[in-house]
Amino acid sequence: MTDPSFPRKRSCTLSMFTIWIILGFWTRTTMVSATTVEERISAILDHLRTSQQTEAADRDVPFVSLCFAQSLDGKLAMFAEEESSSFTVTSSIKQTTSNLAISGASSLLLTHALRSSHEGILVGGRTMSTDNPRLSNRLWNSDRSQPRTIVLDPFLRHLRMLGEGRKARNIIVCCSDKVELPEHSHHDVTFLPCRTCYDGSLDLVDVLINLRRHHGIKSVMVEGGPTLLGRFMEAQLFDAAYITIAPVLFGPGLGISLTERFSLAGNEICYHKFDNDFCLVASRRK
Ligand SMILES: NC(=O)c1ccc[n+]([C@@H]2O[C@H](COP(=O)([O-])OP(=O)(O)OC[C@H]3O[C@@H](n4cnc5c(N)ncnc54)[C@H](OP(=O)(O)O)[C@@H]3O)[C@@H](O)[C@H]2O)c1
Predict the structure, then answer these.
(1) Residue 187: what pLDDT?
(2) CATH no. for residue 207?
(3) Which of 67, 140, 184, 214 could form a disulfide with 112 if both were Cys (CB 3.0 to 4.6 A apart)?
(4) pTM of the full predicted structure?
């Protein structure tokens, strides 16, 4: 004869087990979602510092991180209205809008935190002349030393365009080794002559070698714009990438096709959610 109490006992044990699993899962998920933005950013920085120490210690080029924000349709900048553009950098290149806020406050905090963990912040000349950015860390332990601003400006066109109105201080201007340097330059501008490619752009490997050799810069964060970031991606010249994707659509504009330029295959990928944005963190698999 079977014990009639057995099934009841078993179902009782089973339901206790189910409740325990649910409670355990609930506590775990609540703990994860209860992690503050600052804690998640600190974890990202810890991982970055470990990678910087292991990867870049004995190299002749700095550790390179790419960091940018894009819309859902892959745009980093919108084209400016023709009539509202204040100047045209090069007639064949459409003017883009400046300082367009794509991502939210937490993503901006991440950007400043990442700046705090790099010795140099590198931008293309057009980002410098269009946005006139400060590129300093003002939001994350900002009392620490600031990263150097580095701009790629082969023919010093963008530096001249900004003139005295430039906001970034103490900058390194990477320029062509064939360009004539101004006799009297501003005290907070250092010129770093580099090799050029056939199209007049700077040879990125030479730029990186010179930054490390002549300025001792061991880590660089490339913040844009799309033309420069695309070149770094194409040449696979990066160790980490922080790509914020915001839930907005831009339509016509300048962007980077991640499917064409960015190979997920060679990277370890993880995602973080910051407010409404997704941040894709990629570390190059060695
Ligand atoms: N969403 C974001 O995260 C983000 C971030 C930064 C900027 N932006 C936006 O991006 C726009 C500007 O981007 P952009 O693509 O037009 O220009 P960019 O990438 O900022 O600058 C390109 C310029 O850098 C110089 N350069 C020198 N060597 C280079 C090389 N090897 N590869 C590439 N460039 C080299 C060239 O100067 P010359 O012109 O003298 O040849 C070139 O035209 C702005 O509207 C800005 O607001 C968005």
Answers:
(1) 82
(2) 3.40.430.10
(3) 140
(4) 0.86
